[in-house]
Each structure stands twice: as C-alpha cells, then as structure tokens.
Please model this.
Amino acid sequence: MIAFLWAQDKNGAIGYKGTLPWYLPNDLKFFKQMTINNAVVMGRKTFEGMNKRPLPDRINIILTTDLNYQAEGVKIMHSREEVLDFAKDYSGDTFITGGAKVFSFFMDDVDVLHRTMIEGEFEGDTFIPEIDWTKWKLEKIEEGVLDERNKYPHVFETYARKK
Model:
C-alpha cells in the first residue's frame, strides 16, 4: 500500500522555512506509530530539514533529481517510477511524507490519505497540493487530545480512494 501522511493547518500549510510551522507531539507520535517498520519517502529538502538524520526503524527513501546526492542510512532514488517499483515489491507500507513536490508526483498512485488537520493558521511557505476530495471517502476520524504539550485542536483523518 502507498499512502500519504501529512499534517496541515486550515490553509493547507505543511511547512515553513524547511520545518513544521507548529509543535504538536500528538502528531509526531501518530507519525511514528504509522511509519515504524515501514518505508517513508521524502524529498531532499524535507530530509535536510530533519538535519539529514534518517528516521529510526524505517526504510528512509530520499527522492532527488541530484544524481550525485549522498546521505548515510538512506536509500536515494531519482524518479517516481523507481519509488513505485520499490513499493510494489516491498512487503510493508510505503508512506509519502512530503514535501509538496513529492506529494504532487504521487497524487494518482496513493490508496490512502492520513491527514492531521490542525485547527489554526500558521505562517507557511509550503502547502499541500490540491486534492480532488470527490475521489476520496472518509474512513476514520479521531479527535486529538489537547493538553499542556498539545496546544492546538487537531483531528486525525484517514481517507480511502473511492473504487
């Protein structure tokens, strides 16, 4: 299965200056639960926004057009087709985790969307590409817990592609 996994504010912002525009531990925990022992695909800029540190206990795939790009502890791929071939043969799930350009490459290939919707408006310079929501059915919605560490109202949503 190939899925998108992202968090956004109500304006569709997903990033600001190479990082997340918010701090929401519940979402980080959700991300880890979903991706652990699976594969995550991200663009070079997203990876570099994480200080080029691979996520532990996951296959980290960095998608870049730079044929000379190197980083430790990750698989480097250079095309959408290369990622799709990997996902087809991989026994686990493959999560597309950003950034915006990478999401747009795989828009027609994903089966499931996992979105954390954060009720708020944040400064953003990177936005989730337009999604045709008529092609998706909401399967699950779960309210995120608000507490002293998780200050923004949020919900976890899972959508399946309509047949």
The radius of gyration is 15 Å. The mean pLDDT is 97.
